[in-house]
Amino acid sequence: MNLFRSEEHVERWLAGRAPGATIPVVQLAELASAWWGDRLSPGWRAHTREQNQAILDAVGLTGAFWRLP
Amino acid sequence: MDGSDLGLRNATYGLVAELGRVPTAAEAARATGLGLEEVRARWRSLHEAHALVLDESTGEILMANPFSGVPTRFRVYADGRSWHANCAWDAFGICAALGTDGRIETTCPDCDEPITVEVRDTHPDDETLLFHCLLPAAHWWENIVYT
What we know:
heterodimer
């Protein structure tokens, strides 16, 4: 789970491996805020699978690749 | 994960934020007044619940997600301290968890050039960067270290 300067860097790094998913860093930041924002809260409770899936859906990460088990 | 596990989990995360690194089991025992073996047993319970990740060989914390217990290519500077993150997602997650602005320093895994991102109000200053996630979500916890 890395940051890259461009698609060209991603493709060169993959070196023929099957790609995963590439998203804009702004979308990653939105995801991180929703996913980790409560991690240091005294009232923290483990997210359920449904809660985490709802976070992915809410930031636009839908489809089979982003489907939690 | 029972209430006592949760209490130790919250105390452990508090130490991560305070120290700028994950605590050792001995440090967590001293800070909480629990015995060392109880800390190790409760950390094991938290590991099984995916609330943190232990190093199987030492019983110490490898990941208190989004914080890393070992040095990585992802360094986050915030609030006068710094932490290692497990990945780019977690690097942004550290700023989110702390509720502060910060600076993420990493390198491009392709060309090794430095990448620095300033995070202000949860937003990255360089919007041109891309994030690549190699594994589908269905497989993230099969090998969380690789993920």
